[in-house]
Each structure stands twice: as structure tokens, then as C-alpha cells.
Design brief:
About 80% of the residues lie in helices and about 0% in strands. It is built from seven helices and no strands.
């Protein structure tokens, strides 16, 4: 790392941290998560070359996107937890429900929908990452998630 880049990063940090943190906190309502998001954005900036004149807007947009991705991930996790409420069930019931879920994913969903469910929930990939991995649009990923969760909910409602 060159001394010039270190100075540039320090200047960007000093000039933008407070705004970035306030944006992250406004979106997430959590101090720790807001700090983590801002730190992650700066870490990624460290790895990329961003022009000085666009760095400030790049940082703010990156914070916004990171926060929105985190919010979306939390919503996915909540939906999955509603589908499989872990803390209430005993081990045997949990195992039976898990096996039924896996069976449903393998046998009741289309191959594409099953792949989307596995990548988003199993691999915890974002919709964008899943879309790129499967060569489909983000909108298609969303449609597969909705379709897959609806099918799983219907098949597993009696368990």
C-alpha cells in the first residue's frame, strides 16, 4: 500500500465517516450494525480504486446498498424462522420438520426454484448474487423465493 493511498483513505474516512454512520443508523436503527456496515464499506474501498471526485457519493451509495442488503437478509431469515420456528420445537420434531423441508425442496419445487431457495437460504447469498450465479434476473429470484416459500408453507403447515 502506498503512502499516498493511505493518506487518501484517511482523508476519506475523516470527511465521510459521520455522514455514513448516520445514514446506516437511520436505516438499521442499531449502533453496532451501523458501525459494522461503515467499516465493511471502507474495507471494500481499500481493495478498489475509486476516483477521489466520486468517492464521497460512492461511499454513501455503498452504505445505503449494504444496509438494504442487511435488511433484506434479516427479512429472509425471519421468514425462514417463521417457516421453521426453532426455539419451540423439540429435537425430534425439529429433525422431522427439517427432513420434510428438504424433501419438499427436492421433490415439490421446480429445479430452478429449489436452486434459488438453496442459494438464498442455505448459502445466504443475496438476491443479486443468486441471480448472477444462476444467470437470471433479480426479479426472477424474487418470484422463485415467493413461489418456493408458498409451496413449502402449504406442504409443511400440518407438521
Amino acid at each position: 500500500m502506498t503512502e499516498k493511498k493511505e493518506k487518501q483513505m484517511e482523508q476519506l474516512f475523516r470527511a465521510n465517516y459521520e455522514r455514513m454512520y448516520r445514514l446506516a443508523f437511520a436505516l438499521l436503527h442499531d449502533n453496532e450494525e451501523a458501525r459494522d456496515v461503515v467499516s465493511d464499506v471502507f474495507s471494500k474501498l481499500w481493495e478498489h480504486d475509486v476516483k477521489e471526485e466520486t468517492a464521497s457519493s460512492y461511499l454513501m451509495q455503498s452504505v445505503k446498498n449494504a444496509c438494504l442488503n442487511l435488511i433484506a437478509q434479516k427479512k429472509r431469515d425471519e421468514r425462514l424462522q417463521q417457516l421453521l420456528p426453532l426455539e419451540v420445537e423439540q429435537d425430534a420434531q425439529l429433525e422431522e420438520r427439517w427432513q420434510a423441508t428438504v424433501h419438499c425442496i427436492d421433490h415439490d419445487l421446480t429445479p430452478q426454484t429449489a436452486s434459488v431457495i438453496r442459494l438464498c437460504f442455505g448459502e445466504q447469498m443475496s438476491y443479486k448474487e443468486t441471480a448472477e450465479e444462476l444467470g437470471i434476473s433479480i426479479s426472477a429470484v424474487n418470484k422463485h423465493i415467493v413461489k418456493g416459500l408458498r409451496t413449502l408453507r402449504d406442504k409443511l403447515k400440518d407438521l
